[in-house]
Amino acid sequence: MEQIPPILACTLFDSLVSPILEYGCPVWYTQNNAKQLETTHIKFLKNILRVKTQTATLAVLGELGRIPLTAKLHIRLLSYWARLISLPESNLLKISYNMLLDLHLLGTKTWCSQIINTLKYYNLQHLWENKDKDQIKKFNFKKHIQTFHQNSIKKDIQDSNILPKLRTYKLFKTDMNPEKYLLISIPKYRISLTQFRTSSHCLEIERGRYHKPKIPANQRFCKYCDLHEIDDEIHFLLNCNHNLKLRLELFRYIQPLIPNIDIEHLKLVKPIELFIFLMTIENLSVLTAIGKFISKSFTNRNL
Question: Does residue 174 fall inside a structural domain?
C-alpha cells in the first residue's frame, strides 16, 4: 500500500469502495451503522499514511484534506429526504413517509427521527420546522455539511483541551487542503514526514505519554544530546546535536532553493517560525530533503 500515493489511494477508495459502503444509506442509516463505516474509513486512511492506530484522527483527516465518511452519508440522507417531501401525496413513497411521520409525532422513534437529529446536528432544524418544500429542495446540503466539518476539524485541531498531542500540529495546520508533501515520490521519506508531522513517532514527547507512571510533558528530555531540551518535533528538527551532521547537509541543500530565507539566522532568532516555515513550504524538493533528514535521523537513533 505504501507504494501507492495517498491521494491516489483516496481517489480509488472514493471511486471503488465508498459507493459500496454507502449503497442504500438513506434507507438503512443509523448512528451505529455510520460509526462502523467511519471506523473502516479511518483505518484505511491511517493505513495508507503508515501511521500508528493511536494517531489522532483529526491529524489524519487534516493531512489528506478529508472530512468524515459520515458526512457523505448525511448528505445523501438529507438529499433523499428533500426529494421525498417534494413527491405528490399519492406517491407510495410519500404515503410511507407520512405514515412514519405520524408515528414520529406520536412519540415512536422512526426514520423521521433520524432526519430531525441530523438536521439539528448541522443547525438546520429550521428546515424541519418551516416545512417550506421549495426552500428544502433548493438547499445545498452538500456545501453546508462539507463546510461544517471542515470548520469543525480546523477548530478542534486548534483546541489543546480536545487533543493535547496536537500541540505541535496546530502550529502549522491551518487549512483543510491535502498536503503537498504527499506527492513525494520516495515512500520512506514521505512516510517519515507524515509520522513526524502527526506525532506518530517515538520522540520522548510521545513516549513519555505511555510511560508508567506518565512522565510530565515538561520532563520528557532528549536522551541523545546534552542540550537538556524537551525531545519534541522542534528540538529534533532544529536543535538536537545527535542529528547535527545531517542537519547541516539539509540546510546546505535547501538554502539555495529558498534564497529569500536566511535559515541559520531564523533558527537562532525565531526557531518556531523556522519550524512552521519548513512544515508549510510547498517546494517538493525541499519537502523531500526534509523527509530524508527525518528518516535518516530516526535511523541514527535506532527508532
Answer: no
The predicted-structure confidence for 214-223, as pLDDT tens digits, reads as follows: 899 899 999 9
Q: Are residues 147 and 25 in the same domain?
A: yes
Number of domains in the chain: 2
| CA atoms in the 13 A half-sphere facing the CB of 279 | 24
> pTM of this prediction?
0.90
Q: Residues near 161 by Cβ (< 8 Å), separated by ≥ 6?
A: none
Among the three residues 160, 191, 206, which one is the final residue of a domain in this structure? 160
Torsion of CA 131, 135, 140, 142, to 10 degrees: 10
Closest CA to 303 of 224, 241, 218: 224
pLDDT in tens, 60-84: 999 999 999 999 999 999 999 999 9
CA distance linking residue 157 with residue 162, whole number of Å: 8
Same domain (yes/no): 4, 137: yes
